[in-house]
Design a protein that fits this description.
This protein has 612 residues and is mostly beta strands. It folds into 6 domains: 124 residues, Immunoglobulins (Immunoglobulin-like, Sandwich), CATH 2.60.40.10; 83 residues, Immunoglobulin-like; 93 residues, Immunoglobulins (Immunoglobulin-like); 92 residues, Immunoglobulin-like; 91 residues, Immunoglobulins (Immunoglobulin-like, Sandwich); 92 residues, Immunoglobulins (Immunoglobulin-like), CATH 2.60.40.10. It has no helices and 56 strands. The strands form 13 sheets. The protein has a 5-stranded mixed beta sheet, with no helix packed on it. The protein has a 5-stranded mixed beta sheet with strand order 13-20-19-15-17, with no helix packed on it. It has a 5-stranded mixed beta sheet with strand order 22-29-28-24-25, with no helix packed on it. The protein starts with a strand and ends with a strand.
Length: 612
């Protein structure tokens, strides 16, 4: 809207007289003289216009007689021509004693501005008010996000005003990382919508004084569905692999709920996700042991709180299965102690097969058992696992598929007394290591693959109660080489020997263990972490021990006397030069990050991160 301002300039001559005290003249009442006898009060030469603009007029009265033919003109200063336009007249003369000069002031969309109009040699100053700040928003101002969340972006454009400040703030707890929080004139604001674990939810931000709405969809709850189960009948009391097919199975959380005899509810008997040997969105395979005969119902559930699928039935019967058959045994001779046995044959149940040993000190079928969980190899045609036999003599080895199952044929294993000839070490690698775990490789002669073990004596491993790397812990066992892990937590000189069972030990070779090196940090990323948001923190440097390294965090709520620890098991990346882990810091402020190898190791230098 425009508004016209019309001002008249009147010149009056007052008479003298009276007894009043004289009043000091105001500076605004001072008369300014222009062309052709034109005079105007100084206070009338300053005009103000709102930001919407409008017309401004002034009346010019000349006092020179018409016979003098005096002329005057009107001009707009160069700086003012951008927004002030002369309408009429551009000039005048004393021929016309009075004239009205009018100019047009354009609307203002920015800051306050001044312009000068010279009328009959008298400068008039026109001040136009600044426009109030106004903004328009574009982008994700009324956006819908999936349950997984995402990032939104809003563009701010100021349409009038200058130097206009604005702020951006989230009004909903699931809308985070609003950045930047403030700005001037134009800008772009981003924000994060976190993942939704429930129903649909609305959210709101206030940006530049305007409301931005966000709608997030509910999490998509998939109800699993079973189409078939195989086999439909299993022997009771025997662990059997079953396969369930269907749709909507979550490989990360799916479990099978079993109801039936002795399993009254859907939580009584569950095949947990970790037990599955195969898991896809359409197939689950895992072991089931039904210890009662009868009909059972199987249902699939994604997580313990998820909806249950339809139910399918499976029967547990008392039908006996065929006995397994052993075709070969290796070795057929061993030395007193622990020996790895390998059995080849047919009819082995990988989920329930076990090795039954009878002989000296193992008088019955249940006296000496290598349980299914102890086997290192389990297939339908091969079983492998350690057997500890502490008496010399002849033993019978059989296979049984679960307790109560039929026994296989028996094969003979001869166990000999330990040799009286000690083994000999010719080389050790490495001969020098650092405190912590290491892999030892020993070469020599006379090693018994079935009973040889490594004896370590030194600091914290004094003779005769030396530290031992058992035969079962060795990763390689031959008559001329042994390989296995040793964890030495003290620095110093150690003696390494080999012993076959309880026989005489070999010669000793020296292993030097050095103190642990102090880790050093060269960088951390990111250096700024959002408060109360799980963030992957990566520390780079040197001399990190992948097996024991941990992060030490000191700052608000994590004092030096009781720092917050990111344990080795929480690390997602572990190498000698890099560690990564999710970190959630619930207090704002400055924190320091250090690395140490083990809880008693020396701490590295400290680097800083900021939480806000």
């Amino acid at each position: 809207m425009r508004r016209a301002i019309l001002a008249s300039v009147l010149v009056a001559v007052a008479g003298c007289g009276g007894s009043s005290s004289p009043v000091p003249p105001s500076p605004n009442d001072e008369l300014i003289s222009g062309a052709c006898g034109y005079r105007v009060r100084r206070g009338d030469t300053s005009r103000s216009v709102g930001f919407g603009g409008g017309q401004v007029s002034t009346q010019v009265t000349t006092t020179v007689s018409a016979q003098s033919s005096c002329t005057w003109s009107v001009s707009v200063s160069d700086a003012a021509r951008a927004f002030i336009t002369l309408i009429e007249p551009a000039s005048g003369s004393s021929t016309a004693a009075q004239a009205t000069v009018t100019v047009d002031v354009a609307p203002n969309s920015g800051s306050q501005r001044l312009g000068t109009v010279i009328v009959a040699d008298v400068p008039f100053t026109i001040t136009e008010a600044a426009a109030p700040c106004a903004f328009t928003l574009a982008g994700d101002i009324n956006a819908t996000f999936a349950a997984a969340g995402g990032t939104g972006r809003v563009t701010i454009t100021h349409t009038q005003g200058a130097g206009c400040p604005w702020t951006a703030v989230s009004n909903s707890p699931f809308i985070v990382n609003v950045s930047p929080a403030s700005g001037t004139d134009d800008g772009t604001v981003t924000f994060t919508v976190t993942a939704n674990s429930g129903g649909a939810r609305p959210g709101m931000l206030t940006i530049a004084g305007q409301t931005v709405t966000v709608t997030q969809a509910a999490i998509n709850v998939v109800v699993p569905s079973i189409t078939s189960v195989a086999p439909p009948t299993v022997p009771f009391g025997v662990t059997t692999a079953i396969t369930v097919t269907g749709t909507g199975f979550d490989p990360a959380t799916a479990q099978i709920a079993v109801t039936g005899p002795a399993c009254p509810t859907t939580t009584s008997c569950v095949v947990a996700n970790a037990e599955f040997t195969a898991k896809t969105p359409t197939l689950l395979t895992g072991p089931i042991t039904l210890r009662n005969t009868g009909t059972f119902t199987l249902q699939v559930q994604n997580g313990s709180a998820g909806p249950l699928s339809n139910g399918v039935t499976i029967n547990a019967s008392a039908t006996t299965t065929a006995a397994p058959v052993i075709t070969t045994l290796s070795p057929t001779q061993a030395t007193i102690g622990t020996s790895p046995l390998s059995i080849v044959g047919t009819g082995f149940d990988p989920l329930s097969a076990r090795i039954v040993v009878t002989g000296p000190a193992c008088p019955t079928d249940t006296s000496c058992i290598v349980a299914n969980s102890e086997l290192t190899t389990r297939t339908s045609t091969q079983l492998a696992g350690p057997a500890t036999l502490l008496n010399a003599g002849t033993f019978t080895i059989r296979v049984q598929n679960g307790p109560g199952g039929a026994f296989s044929n028996g094969v003979t294993l001869t166990v000999n007394p330990p040799s009286t000839t000690p083994p000999t070490i010719t080389a050790l690698s490495p001969t020098q290591t650092t405190v912590g775990p290491t892999i030892l490789t020993i070469t020599g002669t006379g090693f018994d693959p079935s009973s040889a073990h490594i004896i370590v004596t030194g600091p914290a491993c004094p003779a005769p109660s030396a530290c031992t790397v058992a035969n079962a812990e060795l990763t390689s066992r031959t008559a001329t080489q042994l390989v296995g892990p040793a964890t030495l937590l003290n620095a110093g000189s150690f003696t390494i020997q080999v012993q076959n069972g309880s026989g005489p030990p070999s010669n000793g070779v020296t292993l030097t263990v050095l103190p642990p090196r102090t880790p050093a940090i060269t960088g951390v990323s990111p250096t700024v972490i959002p408060i109360d948001v799980a963030t992957s923190l990566t520390v780079t440097g040197s001399d990190f021990d992948p097996a024991t390294a941990q992060m030490v965090v000191v700052g608000p709520a994590c004092p030096q006397s009781s720092p917050c620890i990111v344990g080795n098991g929480e690390l997602t990346v572990r190498s000698a030069s890099q560690l990564s882990a999710p970190v959630t810091l619930r207090s704002a402020g400055s924190f320091t990050i250090q690395v140490r190898n083990g809880s008693a190791g020396a701490s590295s230098n400290a680097v800083s991160v900021t939480v806000r």
